[in-house]
Amino acid sequence: MARGPVAFLESGGQMKRAWVAGEELIDLLPGDDGSRIPKVGGGPANTAKAVARLGYKTFFVGGISDDEYGRAIKVELESSGVDLSLTYRGLESTALAIATLDESGAAKYEFGLDGTASFAFHGSWLPKGEPDVIHVGSVATVLEPGASALFEWARSKSAPIVFDPNVRPSIQGDKDKYRKSVERWIDVASIVKLSEEDLDWLYGDESVVKRWFDRGVSLVVITRGEKGLSALGRDFRVDVPAVSVSVIDTVGAGDTIGAILVEGLLGLRAAGGKLWQMDLPLVQGRHHGYHDVDAEYREKNSKKNYGRILEKYRGRTDILSARR
Description:
Helix content is 32%, strand content 21%. By secondary structure, it is of the alpha/beta class.
């Protein structure tokens, strides 16, 4: 039996649209011989690819250079099914992220971003109209002047917003300034996804999350690496253990969680539901690696590990509430 977007289309429905806004860039990853291997990256670009691979109509909202790296980015995104009709195309260079991997495979980055097409956000080209879900995040929500243009655009929309700050202290080391940037996005987000490390660096602990619910956020998902993830609402908490895998690296892992949240919202809206009618936590057991987006893997791990969560929260009507 068909599931997700396929089942909805077969029933005569209209495919829902996701806009994923933010940066794409080139990750320069370390090779075994000390060389640098260019790979298409950027948290929002990774999320857009994952949502598209899950079968949903996905538009990337960002700037893509006409240089060699930009052309490679275009090919990569389009090959995953991402629609680039809403992007800005410019002569500015492509942003670069120089990655180093520690012994566990975790990545740390240094960046070359200023004056690049990747961060050329401006009201003159940001798209009009409304999608069904907006995912926005990462460095594009911090780096000025584009960050303010992106924020003003996003807050003018009525679609639910999934916000992933994807904190990068090497971009902005002043915690007060970084918190101020994150906090304004909290005021327009329906769902916030961030890592345990993000919270610890910005706030020291997780107590701030409770205040976000008073400001209109409905769900906060905290990723915890090998410890799994937690989904928090005003009056509930679900802790999901991670599936044990052999780690090659963690590049793009958190970005996939954002894609799963978008998938949950799109599926809900495709079925004619409203945010406040959500009857399952959006995480619904889909905590998997960046490359593991095939249906068989997701189905197996959802049933094997997280069926208790689905049962515990089945029938809930207050897990999400509308922002507006």
